[in-house]
Amino acid sequence: MEHIVVLNLAVGAAVALFSWRLSCLVTDGAYLRYWGLYWAAASFGTVAATELARQSASAAGEASYWFRTGAFLLMLPRPLLLAMAAASLLKPSSPSLAPAAGLGALLLAAAWMLASLAVPALRHPTRPAAGAFLISALAALVFAAGVFRRESANRWRAVLGSAVIAAYALHLAAYGLTLGGIPIYPAWDSSSAAAVSGAVGALVAVGLGLTALDSAREAQRRYVMIVEGTPVGIHFYCRAPGGGLLLSGANPAADSILGIAHSELIGQRIEEAFPALKATTIPSDYERVLDTGVPIRREEINYSDGRIAGAFDVVCFGLTPDSIAVLFNDITERKWAEEELRRSEARYRLITDNSTDMISVHSADGAYQFVSPSSHALLGYEPGELIGRSAYDFIHPDDIAAVQVSHKSVLGQELPTIVYRIRRKDGSWVWVETTSRLAAPGDGGASSIIAATRDITRRRRLEEQFYSAQRLEEIGRLAGGVAHDFNNLLTVINGNAALMEADPLASPRSRQLALSIRQAGESATSLVR
Is the pTM of this model over 0.70? Predict the structure, then answer.
C-alpha cells in the first residue's frame, strides 16, 4: 500500500515539475502549467483523500461525516484545473477564458457534491466525489480535442496524443461512474485506480513534453535564423559579476554595420569592448534596462566637424532577469538626407522670407497653399489669411479673363508672365506682374503652381507718364508741321495783299480791303510762330 502511495506522489510531482518546466519553452505554455498543477492536485489530493476516507471508516458519528466530507472537498481542484488547462489549450489568445471555464467546472462539481450530501435519494458513500471525476473526464475530452487541433500538422502525433488523453478521460469517467454507484471498476480500490491514473498521467506528460520540446526546438531554430539573417545589428549583454554589463554575443549584421569582429570582444565589459561609450550614459542606461525591465528606444548620433559621422536607431530591452538585447540599425544615410533637407528648407525659407516678391504656391484650381511673408507688404494680408482662398477672389474683374488664359497655359507646361490688378486688404487696387510655372507633383500628390508676384504700380505709373509724354511730343511735332504749312500759305496771302495795297491803279476801296487782308494775315502769322 505504501509503495503505491509513494509512486503516486512521485509521479504527480514529476509530472507537475516536468510540465511546469516545459511551459517555459513555448510561448503558449499556460495549458502545460495548468496541466502540471492538475497532476499535483490529483496526486496529493488522492493520497490525502484516501487517508481521510480510511479515517472516516474507522471513526463514528459526526467525525466520520467530516472525514468523508474533507475527502470529497479534496477532489474539487481536479475539474477546476483540468478545465483551465483545456480552455488554455483551445483558446490560448483568450487568457480570461481559462478562469471562467475553471470556475464553471468547480461550481458544477460543488453543486453535485452538495446535492449528493443533502438529498436523501442521492446519498451514496462515494457519490459526492463522482461529480468531480465526471466533470474532469469531460474537461479531459476537451483537452484531447485541443491536442488534436494543435498537432494537426503531424497526423500521427495528433492521433496518438489525443487518443491517450481520450483514454484517460474514459478512465476518469469510468472511475466517476464507479464512485457514483455504477460498478465499472468493481474490483479496484482507490489505490489501484490512482496507480493507473499516475501511469496514464506520466505517459501523457511525456507526450506533451516531447511536443513542447519539438515546439521549443522549432522556435529556437526560427530564433537563430532571425538573429543570424536579420539586417539589424544585435548585441547581447549579461550582468557582470560585481555590476556592469558583459558582451555575451552579437549577430553577423552587427559585424557588418560596425565593421568589427565581435568574436574577439565576447566576454569583455561594454566599456572595454567599446571604449567610445565610456564618455556617454549608454552603459548606465542599458544597465538600468537590465534592472528595471523597462525598454528604451532612441537615436544615437555621432558628429565630426559639425557634420553627422554616424547615426543609429537603437532599441534596448530585457531578455531574462540577467540579460538584455540591443538592436541597432544604421540610419546614417537617412540622417544625412534629413540634414540636407533641413538645409535646403532653410535656404528656401531664407529666400521666401526675405524676397520682396510674393512667393506663393497654388493648387491646380488656384487656391493658395503657401504664401511668403512679403504678402503683407504687397497686399496687406498675413500669409495665414490667404491660405485656402482662391487667387481669383482678389483679381480685378476686368483682368480675370486674361488671368484665366494665363492659368490654362501654366497647366499646359508653359511659363507665362501676366500683368493685372489685384485688390489689397484696404480695398485699393495694385498693379502686379506674376510669373508662374507648374511644379512636379509629390509622392502620390497633385500638381501645384508656383508663382512669383511683384508690385509694378510705380513702374506702371512711370510707363503711363512716358506714354503720355510720347503722345504730347507726337502732337507737338504734328502741330509744328501744320503751322509751317499754314505759315507758307499766310506768306502768299500777306504778299499779295501788300501788292494790291501798293497798286496805284487800285481804287481806295480795294486798297482798304487789301490792308484788312494783310493785317489779318500778319495776326495769323504771329499765332503759328
Answer: no
